[in-house]
Automatic annotation (TrEMBL):
It is an enzyme of class 3 (hydrolase). This is Type-4 uracil-DNA glycosylase. The keyword DNA damage applies. Residues 55-86 are annotated as: Disordered. GO terms for molecular function: 4 iron, 4 sulfur cluster binding; metal ion binding; uracil DNA N-glycosylase activity. The lineage of its organism: Bacteria, Pseudomonadati, Pseudomonadota, Alphaproteobacteria, Hyphomicrobiales. Pfam families: UDG. The keyword DNA repair applies. InterPro entries: UDG_Type-4/5, Ura-DNA_glyco_family4, Uracil-DNA_glycosylase-like, Uracil-DNA_glycosylase-like_sf. It comes from Ciceribacter naphthalenivorans. Its EC number is 3.2.2.27. Residues 55-71 have a biased composition (Low complexity). It catalyses: Hydrolyzes single-stranded DNA or mismatched double-stranded DNA and polynucleotides, releasing free uracil. GO terms for biological process: DNA repair. Belongs to the uracil-DNA glycosylase (UDG) superfamily. Type 4 (UDGa) family.
Length: 290
């Protein structure tokens, strides 16, 4: 077996990168530890000590004691670790998220509120909080699902290979990353890139809806299965939900949105690029109509 001391710094860095991509969150010891045998030994030791301690206590109790008993000192207060703190119930977290989102009067204030929010458990395992970036003045918005491992490392939505493909897709219809507002439905990467749970999505909903409400886009481009289902309220695949304009409600007004395949899906299934191109053309045509 190859050990860490047998590897070069470059090989170690590549191995750590591989583990991060695979969603590994914790490191363990190099050598396995038999916790069951360890527990059995500790229990056997306690069983041996218990009779001896009982006999000693009985002998001391039979003799009159002339010494005054010193009161034992109170135990020090326990300090709860962050992981031991009680979780906020989902319904309360949703209420707090809604209040924080509605209190923000600008995207800047909303970004600060999202970064300070601690009611979603996804934040505890994520490195970065992903929030809208780009130019809101052009009133063009692009929304993805949840941050990827690349996004979490870089702190920006649509990073890595998927981000490069997104840049080329936008360039094909005369747009650039810097000229649109890009965000994700979920601000924090779920562990192992799993799908967010229903309560997690409900907690994050007020923040993304408030982003759209404050940005006031004239059209929104949605990427991926999760994003389309989240806003359209349906359970179909992206192939069933893409290419059709629908209104999504944000605040007191509705915004036209169209869904298409996520760049990561196009990397794994290049044959679907023709479908994505049709959706991009429809999006560009809608923008041209004003």
């Amino acid at each position: 077996m190859i050990t860490a001391r047998d590897m070069t710094p470059a090989e170690l860095a590549a191995l750590l990168h591989f583990h991060a991509e695979a969603g590994v969150e914790w490191l363990v010891e190099d050598d396995p530890v038999n916790r069951i045998a360890e527990f059995a030994e500790q229990r056997a030791a306690r069983n041996v000590r218990a009779p001896a301690a009982a006999a000693l206590a009985a002998s001391e109790g039979a003799q009159p004691s002339t010494a005054r008993t010193r009161p034992s000192a109170p135990p020090p207060p326990k300090t709860a670790s962050p992981s031991a703190l009680p979780a906020i119930p989902d319904e309360h977290a949703i209420t707090e998220a809604r209040f924080a989102a509605e209190s923000a009067r600008s995207l800047s204030e909303l970004g600060t509120a999202v970064a300070a929010f601690a009611g979603c458990n996804l934040k505890t395992s994520a490195r970065s909080t992903i929030f809208a970036s780009g130019e809101p003045a052009n009133r063009i918005m692009v929304i993805g699902p949840m941050p990827s491992a690349d996004d979490d490392r870089e702190g920006v939505a649509f990073s890595g290979r998927a981000g490069l493909l997104l840049d080329r897709m936008l360039a094909a219809i005369g747009l650039a990353r810097e000229t649109v507002l890009i965000s994700t439905v979920i601000p924090w990467r779920p562990p192992g890139d799993r799908a967010p749970s229903v309560p997690e999505a409900a907690i994050c909903r007020p923040f993304i809806e408030r982003q759209i409400e404050l940005a006031e886009p004239k059209a929104v481009l949605l990427f991926g299965n999760f994003t389309a289902r989240f806003f359209f309220g349906e359970t179909g695949t992206i192939h069933a939900l893409r290419g059709e304009w629908r209104d999504i409600a944000c605040g007191n007004h509705a915004v036209p949105a169209i869904a298409t395949l996520h760049p990561q899906e196009l990397l794994t299934a290049p044959a679907s690029k023709a479908l994505a191109w049709r959706d991009l053309k429809a999006f560009a045509d809608r923008l041209a109509e004003g």
